[in-house]
Amino acid sequence: MEVGRLHVLADANLRLDASPIDYVLLAFYFALVLGIGYMARRSVSSSLDFFLSGRSLPAWVTGLAFISANLGAVEIMGMSANGVLYGLPTVHYFWIGAIPAMLFLGIVMMPFYYGSKVRSVPEFMLRRFGKPAHLVNGISFASAQILIAGANLFLLASVVNLLLGWPLWVSIIVAAAVVLSYTALGGLSAAIYNEVLQFFVIVAALLPLTIVGLVKVGGWQGLVDKVTASPGGDAQLHSWPGDNLTGFGNSFLSILGLVFGLGFVLSFGYWTTNFVEVQRAMASKSMSAARRTPIIGAFPKMLVPFIVIIPGMIAAVTVSEYVQDKQVLLDGGDAPSGVTANNAILLLMRDLLPNGMLGVALAGLLASFMAGMAANLSSFNTVFTYDIWQSYVKKNESDGYYLRLGRLVTAIGTVLAIGTAFIASNSGNILTYLQDLFSFFNAPLFATFILGMFWKRMTPTAGWVGLVSGTASAITVWLLSQAGVLGLTGQGISFVAAGTAFVVDIAVSVAVSLATAPKPEAQLVGLVYSLTPKESLKHDETGDDAGWYRKPGLLAGIVLILTIALNIIF
């Protein structure tokens, strides 16, 4: 369906009018990306270097990589699509649905991850619950990363399609080849250093687009006036209660869904157990740096809505296709012009940016897509190599064997992502597609994780049975919504599915734990909060970790105060 829409865009002469200088800028950017991958390759001499950067990176690098890995195609295209359809309530994905969980990861959970020296989140599950839960988590995580990588790849290819007019399948293969090249060359180090570069390129691309767009609509007040008069009305200008986003039709239920479904289950499930993010923090050179990584990332995360959601709102009232067809899109129909909400950033670039600046903007957009896909691939190759292949297929091979395997698995993951890119192409709003995936995979994992970390009585059997039950319940809720049994619109279905998965996982895990035998307490030290000596959770505050501005608790407090202020203002 989406493939056809892209061809409609191209046929309607909506291709971006790039000039030679734009192509020169893009070529320079791609050369730089591949060069970073080649240079990072020289520092890869072991599997630990390839998969975890040798645990040697400073906090500011891992912090920016942490947020850049999330600032991918889905974040930019999906959040701007939400800006078109729903407006300011989309900020909940940042201020409610990200930052509290990021602070919790840095303050509470990173000491367990980093201190235990595990190489992945599934490996933590292995130590806490044993092999069945480990294998279930490893397979589900690897599957999720391939599906999400496919979504990033599809959006990356759609830009190439609109820019060059290449067939979508050619665009997908070329885009995949570039990401594969630098990820397979330099492993996690190449991905992280490119993510830092990509963060600055993305900001350099989207900030001018936002400023130029606001000037065009007459500033903030001009945007307010135009949005109020557009389909959806002034509900798009207030973040609370967000009825249009959740589709619940009841303000109390909408707030409950946002706070519990998004702010607690989906958010904490994603940010605290998703190895894509945790892997960046685990590459840090010290416990203090690992704890600061997500907190440092929270500072720019607070401001990202202003360069991804606001452009979507501007596009909704200035791009002719949206002015004509927005009500059709809100009703879930196919726009006569062929556009979807996912096209917002591209169409705004087409209308607002001159040549030269367009090249920078396109580089930023492509950078975001590659950052997201590279993050998915680097975490996929780690989990598949360590948690599936090494644990259950080839256990005692040399380190060089696993290094070579990691590069091969990166290539295999890329091929699989090409396949899942066509699955993602069927979604009119890519963010909805991703939120559904998170409700399947992350929400039950968080329930298992948090119960196992704070309840020593939870048993190994409960670990894997709870995970499977939670995932099955989320998929059941989604299937019921697709069949029309649950009449929800907007993105509320993912909130309901996530909440259901969490509750079912907890209930099943408690019931199974009470009927089965737990591990001896001696085996749970460092894995369960009450059994872990508090000294082992503390970090060094000397040398590179000294100074008040390097205190994780203080930094987290500052972020929390600023986030509360933003929620009050908007």
UniProtKB/TrEMBL annotation:
Belongs to the sodium:solute symporter (SSF) (TC 2.A.21) family. It holds the Pfam family SSF. This is Conserved putative membrane protein. It comes from the Bacteria. Its main location: membrane. Keywords: Membrane, Transmembrane, Transmembrane helix. It is found in: Membrane. It is a multi-pass membrane protein. The chain crosses the membrane at residues 20-40, 60-81, 93-114, 135-160, 166-185, 197-215, 252-273, 294-319, 357-384, 405-425, 437-455, 462-481, 493-515, 553-569. GO terms for molecular function: D-glucose:sodium symporter activity. NCBIfam families: sss (TIGR00813). GO terms for cellular component: plasma membrane. The keyword Transmembrane helix applies.
